């Protein structure tokens, strides 16, 4: 962030690059983009990192010339996010990675700026679901705690440019890349904050598969990740246990 001084008042100016990795998320982008644009400054940038959508994603972006549509060379969330993050790397002090089916709370830009000013160069939100269910409420409650099992990309993730570069960005993974970069943050000198507000997460996976089925799949794949299982095996297991949503 740049610091400007005027009449003994210190004002911090943050240029934010908001990156949304997508594959056929046109319907979600229609709802998400107006909310994001209403909060960003002219110096900020939104990049939709598209892994090869065959839906109406390009048409959805047409009314928003300020939104950059990046047709990524390779499909895969980690690769898409890295490619977008490396566009004009010197132009933005902060990177914010957001899933298309999530909705950050009002004032998210201010939350991120204040967290960084407090010394937290990496962070995420708690989350809550877009439908009420007592068991989903339990899931949401635990996202206020630090444990790795309570994290995930749905909570969004911000990093200063310095932190992203020194951590090496996302590793070339096809699953669990969000857990991996958080683990590497915790092992580094960068401070990590769980912002004490909630992002809204789509429960579409639970609507299609049911709470228990999703929980069992998540638990099994998380254990495989901790045991160092091959990426392809984790993806295959997840797909075998859950119906597409």
Written account of the structure:
- The chain is an alpha/beta fold and 245 residues long.
- It folds into 2 domains: 2-202, Alpha-Beta Complex (Spore Coat Polysaccharide Biosynthesis Protein SpsA, Chain A); 206-245, no CATH class.
- The protein is built from 10 helices and 10 strands.
- It has helices at residues 26-37, 57-61, 77-85, 108-117, 134-141, 161-167, 177-186, 204-209, 211-226, 231-241; strands at 2-6, 9-13, 16-22, 45-50, 67-71, 94-97, 102-103, 122-129, 157-160, 192-201.
- The strands form 2 sheets. Strands 5-4-3-6-9-8-10-7 form an 8-stranded mixed sheet, with helices on both faces. It has a two-stranded antiparallel ribbon with strand order 1-2.
Summarize the structure.
The chain is 38% helix and 23% strand. By secondary structure, the chain is of the alpha/beta class. The protein starts with a strand and ends with a helix.
